[in-house]
Amino acid sequence: MPTVLRAESAALFEKLVRRPLKCVDQIFMEFQTLEHFVLGCDSASVAVPNDSVEFREQYLTKTSLAE
After folding, report:
1. Residue among 45, 41, 44 at smallest CA distance from 56
2. Is the pTM of this model over 0.70?
C-alpha cells in the first residue's frame, strides 16, 4: 500500500492540521508527492517518463492544484 494511503500518514496529517483527513486533502498530498518527485528528478538530471510541458502545466503548477 502506498505510504500516502496508510493509516499512519492520515493520522500524521490529521495531527498537523487538527481535523479529519478529507478526500481533497488526499488528492493534494498526492499531487505534492508527485511534484516533489519531479523536482527531485530535475535536480538529479533524471528524465521523468512521459514528461512534457503540458503535463507540468496541467498537474504540477500551484494554480492547477487550487482549481
Report:
1. 41
2. no
